[in-house]
C-alpha cells in the first residue's frame, strides 16, 4: 500500500492518499480545493490513477476539491448518505469500498456532524473531525451532538485494536498521527471521562463559528463546485 | 521502531521522534524551542526516555530546544564537528549513533551549511535542509556552497536505494515525505540537471535573509540556550 499524508497549512487540514502499488489505483481522502494542483501533480509523478475521492463529512472550514478531481480524472466521489447531494456513491456503516486490491471499511461516527464517517484501511483509521489527536471535533453546528460523538468514539473507534493508527482531519499542534491506545489513555476529553462529563465540557466551550462556514458548507454540498454568480437580467 | 513526525507551523519545520520500542529509549531530530513542552509531554505519554538529540545543522530559521531538553532529560546532544561548540558528541561521515537497539548512520551532506548532516535509520533518511521535497536548501549563507550541495545530494543521497524514505527538515507545500527514487526523478533542481546548471540556478535566486538569522545562529551555536541579558554594572 502506498500512503501519503498531505497538509493544507491555511486550514490545518490533512488530506490522505492511499494507493494499491500493484494496480496503481488511488484514493484521496478529504482533498482541499486550494491544493488540487499539488495533488494532481503528485498523482502523476507517482504514476497513479485516481479512482475514488472519499469525504469524511461535509466540511465547514475548507472547500473540497472533489468535484474538480471528478471532472479532471473521472474519479467517483464517496461519502455518507446523510450528507452532500452531489456524491456519486453514498455509503453507510459496514460498507466496504475498494481501491484496487485495498479494502476501505466505512464506519459511521456522527456527532461532529450528522454525516461524519471514519474510514479503516489496513490498520490505518481516518477519523475526519470525529476523533482528533488529544481532542475531538466540535459539536455546535451542522447537527452536531456531543452525546452522539462520545458514543461514536467510545463504541466504534475505541473498540479497535490499540495499535490502530489514527489519522485525523486536522491537527493544530503539529502532531501527524496517534493510535487508538494513545487516545483511549491520553485524550483529555475522553480518558476516564463519563458521557455526561464530555457533554458538559463540549457545551461549556464558547467558540466562534468557523470562518468559512457560510461559504464552505453550501460549496461542499456541491462537492466543492462553487456556484457561478447569477446574472441579474 | 516507534516513529513520529512533528511539525512547527510557524517555521514549517519538521521534528522527528525515533524510539526503540523494546528499551523505550528515544531520540529527537531537530526539535524546536517553542515546541519543547509538546515534545516532552509526548515522550511521557508514550513512556519513552529521551537519550539523544540529533541536530542536522546549525539552523538559521528557528531555535533548537536541544539545551533545554538536555537539562530536563539528561539527553546527549549530537551534531557535526563542524558546527555548534555546545554539542556533547561531535560526529562525522560514517559514524553510527545508537538509540537502544536502533542504529543511526551519519552522512555528511554539506552545501546548505558547512556542518549539514543527514541521518539514516532503517530505510528512513532525515535530510535536514540538504535535500527537500522537490527542492533543496538554500546556499547563500553560513558557508553554503551550491556545488558542494549538488555533490552531497547526488553522491551520498541519490546513491541510496529508490525506496529510501526522505524526511526533510522543512516543507512549505504540505508534503510530509518523499523517496530517493521520487527526488532523483522529479526534483526540478536536480533531475536531469548538471552540476553547473544547479550552481547557476542557486546563484540566480535572490532571497531575503531568513527572518531569524541574526538571532537563531548564535542561539543554536549554544544549543538554543539564549543568553541572559548582561547587567551593566
TrEMBL record, chains A, B:
Q: Which GO terms describe its biological process?
A: glutathione metabolic process; hydrogen sulfide metabolic process
Which GO MF terms are attached to this record? hydrolase activity; metal ion binding; sulfur dioxygenase activity
Alphabetical keyword list: Acetylation, Dioxygenase, Hydrolase, Iron, Metal-binding, Oxidoreductase, Transit peptide
Question: What cofactor does this protein call for?
Answer: Fe(2+)
Q: Which InterPro entries match?
A: Metallo-B-lactamas (IPR001279), Mito_Persulfide_Diox (IPR051682), POD-like_MBL-fold (IPR044528), RibonucZ/Hydroxyglut_hydro (IPR036866)
Keyword hit for Transit peptide: yes
Record domain Metallo-beta-lactamase: where:
12-170
Family according to the record: Belongs to the metallo-beta-lactamase superfamily. Glyoxalase II family.
Name listed for the protein in its UniProt record: MBL fold metallo-hydrolase
Give the species this sequence originates from.
Pyxidicoccus fallax
Species classification: Bacteria, Pseudomonadati, Myxococcota, Myxococcia, Myxococcales
Amino acid at each position: 500500500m502506498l500512503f501519503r499524508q498531505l497538509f493544507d497549512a491555511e486550514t490545518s487540514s490533512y488530506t490522505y492518499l492511499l494507493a494499491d502499488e500493484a494496480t496503481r489505483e488511488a484514493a484521496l481522502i478529504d482533498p482541499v480545493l486550494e491544493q488540487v494542483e499539488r495533488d494532481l501533480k503528485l498523482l502523476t509523478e507517482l504514476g497513479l490513477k485516481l479512482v475514488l475521492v472519499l469525504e469524511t463529512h461535509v466540511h465547514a472550514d475548507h472547500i473540497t476539491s472533489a468535484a474538480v478531481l471528478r471532472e479532471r480524472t473521472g474519479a467517483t466521489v464517496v461519502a455518507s448518505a446523510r450528507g452532500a447531494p452531489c456524491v456519486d456513491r453514498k455509503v453507510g456503516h459496514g460498507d466496504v469500498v475498494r481501491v484496487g486490491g485495498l479494502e476501505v471499511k466505512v464506519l459511521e461516527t456522527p456527532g461532529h456532524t450528522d454525516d461524519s464517517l471514519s474510514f479503516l484501511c489496513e490498520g490505518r483509521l481516518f477519523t475526519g473531525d470525529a476523533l482528533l489527536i488529544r481532542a475531538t471535533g466540535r459539536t455546535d453546528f451542522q447537527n452536531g451532538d456531543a452525546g452522539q460523538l462520545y458514543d461514536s468514539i467510545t463504541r466504534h473507534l475505541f473498540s479497535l485494536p490499540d495499535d490502530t493508527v489514527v489519522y485525523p482531519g486536522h491537527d493544530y499542534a503539529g502532531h501527524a498521527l496517534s493510535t487508538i491506545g494513545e487516545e483511549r489513555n491520553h485524550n483529555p476529553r475522553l480518558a476516564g471521562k463519563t458521557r455526561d462529563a464530555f457533554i458538559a465540557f463540549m457545551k461549556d466551550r464558547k467558540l466562534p463559528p468557523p470562518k468559512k462556514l457560510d461559504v464552505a458548507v453550501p460549496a461542499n454540498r456541491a462537492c466543492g463546485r462553487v456556484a457561478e454568480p447569477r446574472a441579474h437580467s
